[in-house]
Amino acid sequence: MSKTDSQRQFHVVIVGASIAGLTLAHCLSSTSIEFTVLEARSDPFSDGAGLAILPNGARILDQLGLYQDVLDQGECMVSHSTWLEDGRLLRRVDARQIRSLRRTNYPLIIISRRALLGILYTRLQRRSCVSFDKRVCRIVSSAGEVTVYSADGSSVSGDLVVGADGVYSTVRAQMWHHINNVYNASTGSHRLSEVPLTDSFAGVFGTSQSIPGLERGSIHRTYGHGWSTIIMKGEDSKVFWFIAIARAGTGQSMPHRSSDRACLARVVEPLLEKHVTCNVKFGEIFHRTESCILVPLEESFQTRWSWGRFVGIGDAMTPNLAEGANCAIESAASLANYLAAFARGPTSLSAQERLDLTLKTWEDSRKRRMKSLFIVSQCAVRIEATTSWVLRRLQTFLGLLHVTGIGLLTDITSRTARVDYLPLPRRRDAERVPRNKEESGWNIQLATLPLTATVALMFYVLHAVGM
Ligand SMILES: Cc1cc2nc3c(=O)[nH]c(=O)nc-3n(C[C@H](O)[C@H](O)[C@H](O)COP(=O)(O)OP(=O)(O)OC[C@H]3O[C@@H](n4cnc5c(N)ncnc54)[C@H](O)[C@@H]3O)c2cc1C
């Protein structure tokens, strides 16, 4: 069934034409579902530096026919090194050592955010369905449809609105506005609420000109005192860099968001003499900067991702510090699976009841995996940029576990989303590692994580109370 109760074609209004929104548009292009994408920016390309495309994201891009472009415009990772701020090497991992990359035959690809957005937009067949300069400001939901209003006064109606509009999601805010109206009207009290965003860390994303001393395809991670960096040398030898800075303890007031070079120079000033490899200091990279932007690294795991004719994907519901782009791609593909099944399925239930059930089932199917990734990324950023001497001991441990850690994060398991209604491309030369053997290996490693975390937490609490 591809029609709603009123016999219209099922129509999805997607807010945000970034990674989550455009991936969803690609997924829906192979179904009978109609869509409109509304984007606040005036052009298809956006700010940002480099992203790492991991096998979970790569497999979906492959299904959508976009993978070769990503390979062509990106750079495959050759090594991952972890450093301490004084230039001591903690661990160097060769890409060939990572079994999950060999097994799936999807290398880790370094690509600029701009290039990825360019591919997602220019390869979209139904590009006429994407409108720029449309900042969504209000959404009205009624029994039969949802109407999405933009700041320029225009509006679009559909059956469902999908918030792919990032951490400050207007769709999420509008959804909660409707939820609270309904609950206030029925019970007279606020029983439910949106999970507030916290921004304990600021992030600076930058792109610099090539610098000698860094190999193409190399990734360098440095653990600092209240900060951590990731430096990647990608396509055209461009250097993509990212710094996470703990807001507490910086001793300086930091703007919320800025791309002003003088302001960012003040923010990164204390890091200029810090090592990002044994022979490259951060200052050498910063002085070659072409573009950079400071953004708050918001964290929140929303408990409710959908309600009525509203749903949110990507950073709008689960901003993820480590896997932002890949999680956004996965959440778009998984939602598309459920919507495609909804549009096909004959049933005795009304369209609204079926939609509620579909969205609830989708949410339940995704939350466990997303919660695990969210917790891992929260812990990782705190350990990597810690100022606590107890957690600093853990850095060494974390650095030594990198082959396992990268293997875990980059692996494809039965919980990893893909587009169910599109064929899985065959990857030539993928190494035959028995699935059950590998999974049991991961399970043992996973089982030790809570133990490690508990011991670390115990030490941390003892330290905090001064024992
Ligand atoms: C400026 C910026 C730079 C980044 N750079 C990097 C980077 O270099 N490396 C990295 O790993 N990660 C980076 N990230 C994070 C990463 O891009 C995200 O984690 C990932 O893209 C999640 O994608 P998303 O589509 O859910 O959200 P986003 O990429 O945040 O996209 C949300 C989209 O919605 C649009 N939008 C927002 N509000 C409205 C509205 N009211 N109406 C219409 N449209 C709206 C925005 O313009 C944007 O295009 C960056 C994020 C931002 C915001």
Automatic annotation (TrEMBL):
FAD-binding domain span: 11-347
Domain of life: Eukaryota
GO MF, any single term: FAD binding
Alphabetically ordered keywords of this record: FAD, Flavoprotein, Membrane, Monooxygenase, Oxidoreductase, Transmembrane, Transmembrane helix
Transmembrane intervals: 442-462
One Pfam family linked to the record: FAD_binding_3
Annotated family: Belongs to the paxM FAD-dependent monooxygenase family.
PANTHER family hit by this protein: FAD-BINDING DOMAIN-CONTAINING PROTEIN-RELATED (PTHR47356:SF2), FAD-DEPENDENT MONOOXYGENASE ASQG-RELATED (PTHR47356)
Protein name: Monooxygenase
